[in-house]
Amino acid sequence: MERTYKEIKLPITEHKVQVYSYFLRGDRIAIRKIMTDAVEVGTDGKTTKVDTGYTSVMENEEVRRIIKSVKDGDKSIEVTDEYIMSMPENDFSFIREQLPVNKEKNLTTRQSEDTSQKTKKRGE
User: Is 84 exposed, middle or buried (0-12, 13-18, 19+ CB in 10 A)?
Assistant: First the structure.
């Protein structure tokens, strides 16, 4: 099954870009791995080094992974790190606005309350 996508036209270069409508699980894992790889922890469990440039790398990876294809007229353009880094800032931002919303913030990791047995108040 192929992912759904839409076509957008970039404001500066006017390239036609097909962007996927959602990330795959593997995409999200790869994007998060950039953050975890940016932190080094010593044997005492304390952080010894943090590469503060990881946010830019994550943003680039999100854009690279959400793009299905890029065309400049009839010419196809390969989506490489070089292509991403050479994009005008407005084009890059425009694609980032198309990124699927990560609703993970709304998820909970705690167990749902068991409503089959209500706890009794004192005196009942």
Answer: middle
C-alpha span between 64 and 7 (Å, rounded): 15
* Segment among 9-13, 43-47, 119-123 with least mean pLDDT: 119-123
Domains identified in the chain, total number: 1
Its pTM stands at: 0.73
Q: Domain of 86: which CATH number?
A: 3.30.2220
Tokens of 88: 């005008």
Residues composing the chain? 124
Cα radius of gyration (the chain): 21
Distance CA 14, CA 70 (A): 10
For residue 31, give every residue at least 6 positions away whose Cβ sits within 8 Å of its Cβ, in sequence order, or none.
23, 58, 61, 62, 65
Q: 96 is in which domain, residue-wise?
A: 5-101
pLDDT in tens, 17-43: 999 999 999 999 999 999 989 988 888
